[in-house]
Amino acid sequence: MAQNLNMAIYHRRRLFNKALMALAWTAAVSGLAILGLILGTLLFRGVGGVSLDVFTQMTPPPGGEGGLLNAIYGSVAMTLLGTVLGTPVGVLAGTYMAEYGRNNWLTTIVRFINDILLSAPSIVIGLFVYEVVVKQMGHFSAWAGGAALALIVLPVVVRTTEDMLLLVPDGLREAASSLGSPRWLVISQVCYRAARAGMVTGVLLAVARVTGETAPLLFTALNNQFMSMDMNAPMANLPVVIFQFALSPYPEWQKLAWTGALLITLTVLALNIGARTLSSNKSQ
Amino acid sequence: MNQAASVASPTTTNSVTAGALRRHALWDTILRSATRSAAILVLLLLGGVIVTLIDGSWLAFKTFGFEFLVSDKWNPVTEKFGARAAIFGTVATSLIAMVIGIPVSIGIAIFLTELCPRSLRRPISTAIELLAGIPSIIYGIWGLFVLAPFLQAHVQPLLIDTFADVPVLSTLFSGPPYGIGILTAGLILSVMVLPYVTSVTRDVFETVPPVLKESAYGLGCTTWEVVSKIVLPFTRTGVIGGIMLGLGRALGETMAVTFVIGNAHRIPTSILAPGTTISATIANEFTEAESDLYTSSLVALGLLLFVITFIVLACARLLLLRLQKQAGK
Questions:
Q1: Are residues B191 and B309 in the same domain?
Q2: Distance between CA atoms of residues B107 and B224, nearest Å
Q3: What residues 65-124 of chain A have any CB closer than 8 A to a CB of chain B?
Q4: What is the ipTM of this complex?
Q5: Inter-chain contact B43–A113, Cβ cutoff 8 Å?
Q6: Which of A16, A158, A264 is closest, CB to CB, to B42?
Q7: B52 and A247 in contact by Cβ < 8 A?
Q8: Per residue in B258-297, pLDDT tens?
Q9: Residues B16 and B145 grouped into a single domain
Q10: Does residue B10 have a pLDDT over 70?
Q11: Closest approach of A125 to chain B, Cα-based (Å)
């Protein structure tokens, strides 16, 4: 009797376990399926539109044929500007946290604040740059767009720089110091060199993140129907063009939106995978 | 430290001069102060964001006062603005995202740490993390053109029919199947928070000492019993931290939601109906806002969003920080 009861409990436990483990399998499979589904849709609807025109023509007026040249140019220009502005400050701040101020009050607070900035809603960054740059200048501009992107690059670079420098063994620093190197040479010749792969990974991840950012550009760089190289004027960019074109009723525009979406996703995924291989080669 | 370095140099370099020493001392000072200023700049930027948002939203709060938070009127023509509908949408979509996202994320983490063949662990983790790399606008366009029509044709009619006679659920799942709406936005968000919650959960699951799990297995526990009685209690703080991190993401997500929420300024009783969120309202209306009061009200919405996410993210960080301290780092 007691044994029967035990067996019943045993079977119930095993069954329950099987059911829940099956659910865990399902969760993993559905996560992968969604990734596959999104990429599949992008390829299916975007590849048809890829042609030379996309890279040589400007965004068309409603109902017309055209390409994405001005949007691609704008995206590249503003991403570059954002990276160039954000990276040096990020590297310096990360250096301070890992080399000079390890565990002092400033580092602790900056690390906390930086983690918050890292996940803060990007639209709030857009509002901030609008109030500080756009309102003061009186018009939308690519400068403002680049500044907003720099604010998104910054926390990513700070975080990875600090993490990577902390991974450099202190023995290396002590060895260099004992050979008589001043602190700045220890940092620039020894620590940076040892942490280079990781720091480059951080910058790549930051660029990947910025490439697809839309919300902070909506009211900083705005959009531009035409090719513009003037950094002081509104500039077209892929994410905002996709936003505008996808929600439009014109099939030509929607087709271009899908093509643009495919281009952005491929770029971002390539950057992500590149960054990952770089860091995993280093760690092995 | 500066001094130590400059004192050490004469013994190692033969051609050392007072000039070289001075140069090194100068560079040391430059690098030290440059890095310190950069760190302070990061601090000032966050302060700047808060001050700017308060400054920008001053007019709205002065005009409407507390009413701004509780009123559900949003009328650009009569210039009456209240944030309740937007706050409701933000909370509702994030709630749906969490209800769906948390179990799935924990399921994937269990799969990765307990069930998955070792050789597949890395590729599958990477694939899940790539979900975080996909730009939010891609989720938006996919949600609008693929997910919403699918829900409208297949899932929503089913939900409406199934729950038609159940008291509370019939209101929750009532009305025509629009395709876009609060449920769709919540679903998209649940996919977007998945990689964040999964990666934190998986990382803390891996910190459980193997000997604890092995003892439980040795006593005859099933995998689920090990997970629920050993792993989850051991990693509780970390898992909650990861969930808060995901919640912070869901609350602030803009573009994906803007595509599929429907942008209707009202508080629907059915989650199938269109609504709006704080971020979607700002994204849609900011460039069209002409009067100062309108702009200011939108900035005030931004401030609200920032304060909400700040609190959630700060809690998440503090939890994870406490965990790190416990680990003896």
A1: yes
A2: 11
A3: 88-90, 92-93, 95-97, 99-101, 106-107, 109-110, 112-117, 119-124
A4: 0.89
A5: yes
A6: A158
A7: no
A8: 999 988 888 888 889 999 999 999 999 988 888 889 999 9
A9: no
A10: no
A11: 7
Domain match, B211 and B260 both: yes
Q: How far apart are CA B292 and CA A24, in angstroms?
A: 52
Question: Considering CB atoms only, which of A25, A34, A107 is closest to B191?
Answer: A34
CB interface of A with B, residues 127-166, below 8 Å:
127-128, 130-132, 151, 154-155, 158
**Residue B81, φ and ψ in degrees, nearest 5:** -125, 135
What CATH number does the domain containing B242 carry? 1.10.3720.10
Give the closest of B35, B111, B225 to A93, CB-based.
B35
Same domain, B291 and B204: yes
Question: Two tokens at B209?
Answer: 């000492």
The pLDDT confidence band at residue B5, using thresholds 50, 70 and 90, is very low
**CA–CA gap between residue A255 and residue A249 (Å, rounded):** 11
Structure token pair of residue A268 = 């971002």
| Angle subtended at Cα B137 by Cα A249 and Cα A137, rounded to the nearest 5 degrees | 90
In a mutational test of the A interface, the residue from B28, B35, B197 whose CB has the highest number of chain A CBs within 10 Å is B35
Q: Is the pLDDT of residue B119 over 50?
A: yes
pLDDT, tens only, A135-175? 888 889 999 999 999 999 999 999 999 999 999 999 999 99
Same domain for B150 and B18: no
* Sequence-ordered list of residues with C-beta below 8 angstroms from that of A179, at least 6 positions apart, any chain: B12
**Residue B240: domain span:** 65-328
Last residue of a domain, one of B38, B59, B80: B59
Number of domains in chain B: 2
Q: What is the pTM of this model?
A: 0.89
> Which residues does chain A have within 8 Å of residue B34's beta carbon, measured at their own beta carbons?
92
What one-letter code names the amino acid at A26? Answer: T
